[in-house]
Design brief:
Distance between the termini: 53 Å
Order of helices and strands: HHEEEHEHEEEHHEEEH
Radius of gyration: 19 Å
Largest sheet: 6 strands, mixed
Number of strands: 10
Structural class: alpha+beta
Helix content: 25-40%
Length: 264
């Protein structure tokens, strides 16, 4: 089929299918037909540059959290700040889109309470999370107001090893774990080499989180730029705990951070 005759969903599906087959860190492709059919039903972010697809990401409701996943930037356009645009748009959707959170439009209606609620419905219910081992994406997430969750020995792991994943609520841990298990089974039958890739790099993936209490806080101004923009060293993911950035509003207190680390 000629490219000019493709509709927008088909064009995105072809682009996405090609990159999902070459990027081992991402989910498996469902094929062009299924991607074009399911794409419009998936909360997603699409960045265009001169009419061409420059960036893509999906927002998934998983275990009470919203995961920013399947983040892709067109290879020839990387280093132009599109990952920062994706993170910013993800924050906007997370804090404003009730459908994304499964919240009824207009909020819950309590007919037994005749008092008028002036505060409006609460949209954000769960944290916005993202996993990455890419230095540039890590910098974009930190610049977008995400917190890098430190790896600590935790009671849920019997203090046997350090974990950041264990800081998430148990419901979210189970949902994410099941999702990754299904992905692994899919790879087992479609691309076994990817299982080896994930096992080899599993400890390199870091967890970044924005909690509901920070939903209305604008993203901070990052002091360091991503490596592709000429700033962060290649081993930045091992040093992200020391990233310094300023907050546009009130800074998160050490007590709040400690509470989140303990899963409260």
């Amino acid at each position: 089929m000629e490219r000019n005759w493709l509709n927008e969903d088909e064009r995105i599906a072809i682009w996405l299918d090609a990159l999902l087959k070459t990027e081992p860190d991402l989910r498996p492709s469902r094929g062009v037909t299924k991607e074009s059919r399911k794409g419009p039903l998936t909360p997603r972010i699409i960045i265009l540059d001169d009419g061409e697809i420059a960036g893509y990401a999906e927002l998934r409701r998983i275990g009470g959290a919203i995961e920013l996943a399947t983040v892709i930037v067109e290879p020839k356009l990387r280093g132009n700040g599109f990952s920062h645009q994706i993170v910013h748009q993800a924050w906007e959707r997370w804090r404003q889109d009730p459908v994304l959170h499964g919240t009824p439009l207009g909020g819950q209606v309590d007919l037994s309470n005749a008092a008028l609620e002036l505060t409006g419905p609460q949209i954000v219910r769960g944290p916005l999370i993202s996993f990455t081992r890419d230095a540039a994406m890590g910098a974009a997430l930190a610049g977008g107001g995400f917190t890098l969750i430190p790896r600590k020995r935790r009671a849920s792991r019997l203090w046997l090893w350090k974990s950041d994943f264990a800081a998430l609520p148990l419901r979210t841990q189970i949902a994410v774990g099941f999702d990754r298990l299904v992905r692994g089974v899919t790879f087992l039958f479609t691309s076994p080499s990817r299982i080896v890739h994930f096992m080899r790099h599993s400890r390199k993936y870091r967890l970044f989180v924005r909690i509901p209490e920070t939903a209305e806080r604008p993203p901070p101004r990052l002091h360091l730029r991503s490596e592709r923009e000429g700033g962060v060293a290649s081993d930045v993911m091992n040093q992200m705990d020391a990233l310094a950035f300023t907050m546009a509003e009130i800074e998160t207190t050490s007590e709040q951070i400690a509470a989140w680390d303990e899963g409260e």
